[in-house]
Amino acid sequence: MPKLERSLQSQPRDAGHPAEPTADDLLPLVARGDESAFERLYDVVSGLVFGLIRRVVRDQAQSEEVFQEVMLEVWRTATRFDPARGSANTWIMTLTHRRAVDRVRSAQAATHREEHVARLDPNRPFDEVSEQVSGRLERRQVRRCLSFLTDLQRESVLLAYYQGYSYPEVASLLGLPLGTVKTRMRDGLIRLRDCMGVTG
């Protein structure tokens, strides 16, 4: 798979060439696994793709993540493109819009979950739960209750509370949005609290 970590501001490498290929020229070659064609397609469509994502998602960091996801999906699914049903640009932009909308919906769902958790016990600070989990309970009981968390909750909790990483550091290590990591940790700690019978 070609590297995708190229600058969003990269310029087409053949700038000024009179016969610059179009997305319609390149996408069929990408479908056959041509990495060089993919790199040129990246240059051709990156501005349009990122512009649409930025308008839908708005957040810069999340827009960059969605951009990488879109370009990876183009590389992986180019064989699904059917020129009889529309242009390559239309196919790519449809895929882009779907990914961007999915990210917005996911972020909204995470926010709603955080608000719901906060309403469960509004008088009890979230940090108090983590202090009680780490301070009052036997290590063996903590390990037992950790086994009841999902893999995603457990890795977030372990990194933050047992390896000392901050929320942004955990998000960076796991390659996830900060809001997603916060939701995982909050849900995981609430499940730990319930498992271990922590009371206020």
How would you characterize the overall build of this protein?
Helices cover 70% and strands 0% of the residues. The chain has 9 helices and no strands. It has helices at 23-31, 35-57, 60-77, 88-120, 126-136, 139-146, 151-162, 167-174, 178-196. The termini are far apart. Keywords: Sigma factor, Transcription, Transcription regulation. Pfam families: Sigma70_r2, Sigma70_r4_2.
* Separation of the first and last Cα atoms: 52 Å
Q: Which overall shape is indicated by the principal axes computed on the Cα atoms?
A: elongated
* Main sheet record: none
Structural class: mainly alpha
Which value, in Å, is the CA radius of gyration? 22 Å
Sheet-strand content, in percent, reads under 5%
- The H/E string reads HHHHHHHHH
Brief summary:
This protein has 200 residues and is an all-alpha fold. Helix content is 70%, strand content 0%. It contains nine helices and no strands.
Please give a handful of descriptors for the protein shown:
200 residues, mainly alpha, 9 helices, elongated, disordered N terminus
Topology record:
Blueprint lengths: L22 H9 L3 H23 L2 H18 L10 H33 L5 H11 L2 H8 L4 H12 L4 H8 L3 H19 L4
Helix pairs in contact: 1-2, 2-3, 2-4, 3-4, 4-9, 5-9, 6-9, 7-9, 8-9
